[in-house]
Design goal:
The complex is a heterodimer of chains A (about 90) and B (about 230). By secondary structure, chain A is mainly α. Chain A has three helices and no strands. The longest helix of chain B has about 35 residues. Classes of the chains: A mainly alpha (about 90), B mainly alpha (about 230).
Chain lengths: ~90, ~230
């Protein structure tokens, strides 16, 4: 087994772990945010417009962390600087 | 699209410049949007038809959003933000036309869009508060915060770009993988989900641009953090 294929195996495993573990935290955070927003809307249905707009922006912020994990996985799979095939 | 999502194959060359498929699709979309708006606004009537009602609803909706977010007169920002939303939405929904691919699933389109927002934020800031007022914003609590503020401006634009790219690209990718694994009709529910994601992402992109502009246009209140 040459070093290049070792690096490739490690990259694939690392990409899977990056997405798998990296999406746990944002998922928990988004769940809490949506639950809190539901609670707030149930208490004050009048201000649901403001609450849902703020919720969407906040969800986008939380989601950024998962997206970063996805980008790391993509770089490992498709643009790995340690592997030179082309 | 099972190949690398970070590269786009050139479709043809104009001299030494390679032209990729997303470039052609975005130019086509721009032409359709411009022609559509020109057609719809050519004969505006007091008793509007269907197209004019839809257009008015759209403009009024965006106006209301800007007014609620910025708490200011929406007219200076309306053209920019409304065009941004409908362009990103059009890009995201282009994927349902057979043979076309969402241009936002490629990094260059998102980088260009985020670059436009990056330039628009200082433009509106300088126009609303003057050059000095805009620059003073960077040293806001103390001078020590200057590098942090500068870094924040850059990273939030970067995350704006990566968010749109990651969401749209993952949708295209999941559809491609499912199509290659299980066959013809199974990816349809996922494509429906992609349409919803496209709408939400277009909204989020515009709302974040709105929030960024609002952060430089209005003086920050002490209770509200400007970090995002």
């Amino acid at each position: 087994m040459n070093p290049t294929s070792l690096i490739a195996i490690a990259s694939v495993i690392a990409a899977a772990f990056a997405v798998g573990l990296g999406s746990v935290g944002p998922a928990l955070g988004e769940g809490r945010a949506v639950a809190a927003a539901m609670d707030a809307i149930a208490r004050q249905p009048d201000s649901s417009g403001v609450i849902s707009r703020t919720l969407f922006v906040g969800l986008a912020m939380i989601e950024t962390m998962a997206i970063y994990a996805l980008v790391v996985a993509l770089v490992l799979l498709f643009a790995n600087p340690l592997i030179r095939i082309h | 699209m099972i190949g690398s999502p970070l590269q786009a194959e050139p479709m043809f060359h104009i001299g030494p410049v390679p032209v990729t498929t997303p470039v052609v699709t975005t130019w086509g979309l721009m032409a359709v949007l411009i022609a559509g708006s020109a057609l719809l606004t050519r004969r505006l009537k007091l008793e509007p038809g269907t197209g004019q009602v839809l257009l008015e609803q759209y403009v009024l909706g965006i106006q209301g959003q800007i007014r609620e977010t910025l708490r200011a007169d929406p007219s200076p920002y309306l053209a920019f933000l409304a065009s941004l939303f409908i362009f990103v939405l059009g890009c995201n929904w282009l994927a349902i036309i057979p043979g076309l691919e969402a241009p936002t699933a490629h990094l260059e389109t998102d980088a260009a869009l985020a670059g436009i927002v990056f330039l628009a934020v200082p433009f509106f800031g300088v126009r609303a508060r003057g050059l000095k007022g805009y620059l003073a914003e960077f040293a806001q609590p103390t001078w020590v915060m200057l590098p942090l503020n500068l870094g924040g401006r850059l990273t939030r634009i970067f995350s704006l770009m990566m968010r749109l790219f990651g969401n749209m690209m993952s949708g295209v990718f999941v559809t491609g993988i499912l199509l290659s694994l299980v066959g013809l009709l199974v990816p349809i529910p996922f494509m429906l989900l992609d349409l919803l994601t496209g709408l939400i992402q277009a909204y989020i992109f515009t709302a974040l641009a709105m929030v960024f502009i609002g952060g430089v246009v209005a003086p920050p209140s002490p209770a509200q953090g400007s970090q995002s």
